[in-house]
Design goal:
InterPro entries: Bact_polysacc_biosynth/exp, P-loop_NTPase. This is Lipopolysaccharide biosynthesis protein. Keywords: Membrane, Transmembrane, Transmembrane helix. Strand 2 and strand 3 form a beta hairpin. This protein has 15 helices and 14 strands. By secondary structure, it is of the alpha/beta class. The N terminus and C terminus are likely disordered. The chain folds into two domains: 167 residues, Bacterial polysaccharide co-polymerase-like, CATH 3.30.1890; 254 residues, P-loop containing nucleotide triphosphate hydrolases (Rossmann fold), CATH 3.40.50.
């Protein structure tokens, strides 16, 4: 068997991106939920910010010049804007503004929505207030600006009063000294004191005439025409984008934490063998496991295709022993074994199906047996004949352990069937689930190959890895896997040389396939020695 050519490295990264995208798209409901949550968040922001209006007022802070400043100090350095900003945000200014607004008890809540900033390299304080109405925002902003100027003016007047009071005390002291002068004191001494009094009186006059206004309102607050912040369209758009990101993250987490095999690639990576086909699931009310030769449809065609893939590539009949087993309890394994036997019989092979499930009443009770027909020559004693309709007939060796209480191992039935296989005729063996009973391991080392039957979106990756390890340890050989897609899935793809070929079967027009074609593309499977089921490995 020729090996597949290597792939160009430049296609590896796009393939990985497509595979990651397909994995995320399996969780469409999760992504849609994230988008809905983001949309609801955007609408909530619209409701919360729809009634928020912000209005701005600007105040020019006046510098204090002589007599308050010292000589040689520039006017720009006489005002600390950081200090003035803190004063504008003080409780004293807030209380004054609250009284102006007629809400003296609401000073603290008013400060919560006030912002005062100082543009760089300026002596301007910018007041901005956010309220539920445009007029309310402008009114409160102007009230704070006026309250700040009134507070600064009061502080300046208080300073004027303190300075003039000190100067007047000095004048009183000098006047008392003049009155206390004796007649014999020089006149020049009294004249000097009078000159000092004149200077101090002039200074008091200058201070009292000083303009104590704290500053000017260079921009009064006006009611804004529209709400502050992004508009509804922006908020809804941001909500949708955030919801999409949330949905993608949640879908990625689900994909990373998902224990089940959701694609063909995941099954192949866990099992180390190719997936030979995906069989459409049977209807819930269909209890008949045999469809090949007795019923049409895509399910029967899928089993015929699977039987074709198990044959030799040269077109000769399939010969040897094949174990059909499921990791855990699953009726699909019995259906796969029965229909494969019918498909081989349809091609003219004398097939023997060995039932080693130890079930009561077992497969004979669910298959159409021909009471008067004779088993093929060489078939083990006790074999029955199953009528597969147009596909022909095949032999069935039932498991008597379920009815007689026989404790013999399942491998004994395979031993009885080995002479039949040595004559060049195919033998199929069905046992109980491999991870629940040891029968399958004992049989796996006596047959030519093992066909693992699982369920897409139902089989766990850890279970498939355990199946691989147990069969390898027992000396068995996995020829491939067949997956049941469930009752609503109606697609089948087959593997040829490690890839997927054309679609087999027809789509049910009444149902929507829940396994997209994208799910049938996965990682490159582990190489399998041959596509055939042969007597010698």
């Amino acid at each position: 068997m020729t090996s597949s050519p290597g792939y160009d490295d430049r296609y590896a990264e796009p393939d990985q991106l497509r595979d990651q995208l397909r994995r995320l798209l399996r969780y469409r409901v999760t992504i849609a939920t994230g988008i809905v949550l983001g949309l609801l968040g955007g609408l909530l922001l619209v409701l919360l910010t729809a009634g928020s209006y912000s209005s701005t007022s600007e105040v020019l802070v006046r510098s204090r010049t002589d007599p308050f400043s010292t000589f040689g100090v520039a006017a720009d350095n006489q005002v600390s804007m950081g200090t003035e900003r803190q004063i504008a945000l003080s409780a004293t200014v807030a209380a004054r503004a609250a009284r102006t607004l007629g809400r003296p008890s609401k000073a603290a809540p008013l400060l919560a929505n006030l912002r005062v900033t100082n543009p760089p390299d300026t002596q301007v304080l910018r007041f901005a207030y956010t309220a539920g109405t445009a007029k309310g925002a402008a009114r409160v902003t102007n009230a704070f600006a006026e309250a700040y100027l009134a507070d600064r003016q009061d502080r300046t007047k208080a300073m004027v009063k303190r300075m003039t009071s000190g100067l007047e005390q000095q004048i009183d002291v000098l006047a008392k000294r003049i009155e206390a002068k004796s007649d014999d004191d020089p006149a020049t001494s009294a004249a000097g004191l009078r000159d000092q009094i004149s200077v101090l009186q002039k200074r008091v006059s200058d201070i009292r005439s000083y303009d104590t206004t704290g500053g000017d309102i260079v921009r009064r607050a006006e009611p804004p025409a529209r709400p502050s912040g992004p508009g509804p369209a922006w908020l809804i758009g941001l909500g949708l984008i955030g919801g999409l990101l949330l949905g993608v993250v949640l879908a990625w987490l689900r994909s990373a934490l998902e224990p089940r095999a959701r694609s063909v690639g995941e099954v192949q990576a866990a099992l180390g063998a190719r997936v030979l086909g995906i069989v459409p699931g049977a209807d819930a009310d269909d209890a008949d496991p045999l469809v090949v030769g007795r019923a049409g449809g895509s399910r029967a065609e899928a089993y015929r295709t699977l039987a074709f893939l198990l044959r030799k590539t040269e077109g000769r009949t399939a010969a040897g022993t094949l174990l059909v087993v499921a990791p855990k309890e699953d009726g699909n394994a019995e259906a796969a074994a029965v229909n494969l036997a019918a498909a081989f019989a349809e091609s003219g092979d004398d097939v023997l199906l060995v039932d080693a499930t130890a079930g009561a009443p077992g497969l004979p009770a669910r298959l159409p047996l021909l009471a008067d027909a004779c088993a093929p020559v060489g078939a083990p004693e006790g074999s029955a004949v199953v009528d597969a309709g147009t596909a022909g007939r095949f032999a069935l060796l039932p498991d008597s352990r379920g009815t007689t209480g026989d404790n013999r191992p399942a491998a004994s039935a395979v031993t009885r069937a080995l002479p039949y296989a040595e004559s060049g005729r195919p033998v199929l063996v069905i046992t109980r689930p491999l991870l629940e009973h040891a029968d399958a391991l004992a049989v796996a080392q006596r047959v030519d190959g093992v066909l693992v039957v699982g369920g897409l979106n139902r089989s766990r990756r850890d279970d498939l890895k355990r199946v691989r390890e147990l069969i390898d340890c027992s000396g068995g050989h996995i020829v491939g896997a067949v997956l049941d897609s469930g009752a609503r899935r109606r697609l089948l793809r087959r593997a040829v040389d490690g890839g997927w070929g054309r679609r087999i079967g027809q789509r049910d027009p009444d149902t929507t396939p829940s396994t997209p074609a994208d799910d049938l593309v996965g990682e490159v499977p582990a190489p399998v020695q041959d596509d055939t089921l042969s007597v010698s490995r």
